[in-house]
Amino acid sequence: MKKSSSVPEFSVPSFQCPLNDVYSVRETKKHRIGQGQFGEVFRGKDKKTKEEVACKKNMIFNRKMKEQVMHEIRMMERVNETIDSEKAVQLKAVVLNKNSIYIIMDAMKGGELFYRLKERKSYSEKDASKIFKQVASTVKQMHSNDLLHRDLKPSNVMFRDNTENSDLVLIDFGLSLDMKRKQKDPYRDSPFVGTPGFAAPEACDRKFTKAGDVYALGSLLYILLVGFPPFHSKQINGSLDLYRKVTRNEEYFKMETHGWEHVSAEAKHLVRRMLRGDPSKRYTIDQVLAHPWIAKNNGNSGKVLSNTVKNFVRISARQRFRGAIRAIIMMNRLRALTSNTFVRNKRKRRDSKTNKKKKSKKSTSKKNSSR
Prior knowledge:
Elements: E1 14-16, E2 23-25, E3 32-35, E4 39-46, E5 52-59, H1 63-82, E6 91-96, E7 100-106, E8 111-112, H2 113-117, H3 125-144, E9 147-148, E10 157-159, E11 168-170, E12 177-178, H4 210-226, H5 239-248, H6 265-274, H7 285-290, H8 292-295, H9 306-370
Parallel strand pairs: 1-6
Antiparallel strand pairs: 2-4, 3-4, 4-5, 5-7, 6-7, 8-10, 9-12, 10-11
């Protein structure tokens, strides 16, 4: 294990060594607790303190990927500086290897939001209001410090532990942006930033503001109330289909369909104000938290939303299936990147040898001519 001058400085301990020198982590499917486009999250344990942690493995194959991972670490540091520790996942350490960077974080033992909710025997509008208020309060803290999340969705909201009154924690700040520092966006060349179905219409034109986070929260609240999203596609990889629906945003989502009949008028009013296509007419985060449905916890609070819980079960099963498909796609991309990197390195070595031979021949010919 070593800490060299080449290791970037972080606000947390950083190591340039094999991961298992400092953390006990088994990178197997059984121990995997999450996955992204080019990274996986595994359970782990600090070898010294025996503290349980979450370990996010980010594969690095080029400069751009490294820039994106470093951006995520810097954003986590910024969030941890400004947001209450119980509201956002805490960065513990960074471990750097040749082709990967490991981000060590809090272990969120309570699991993802919907996987926990689907186990509930009783779920009411009052419960939905309480859950949503916690998430919205965290986003308000971010906005107060000119921070954008840009990827608010159910899988990025987790329970800290398994207790009934567990804190809800916001995770995954890889796409986040610090508006105050006017930092360089590592996703500036990406055609789309965010998750289709949650990203606001203006995100399709690469316009990112606080209103975009409010829109994503509106989609989250929609699901909390009825158990299915306002925009959805029947295709496994239906990003393009969702893109079309969100950009049109012609009141595509209806509230007269099955599932909304037991939801209060105040809750519907709030959802509509958050999902407005025009960001200038959309509620701000302060208006969201001041809304009577949130501030006074009004609505049909005693009414059990039984159909919503059933829909949570369906959506969880669908997400797991699609997650498995995405994992296969991710592994194929990683194999392709690994293969391409291997081929490029092989070519570089071959070209280097060829150039050395050419130089050697030239120097030999010069010596002979000088004689």
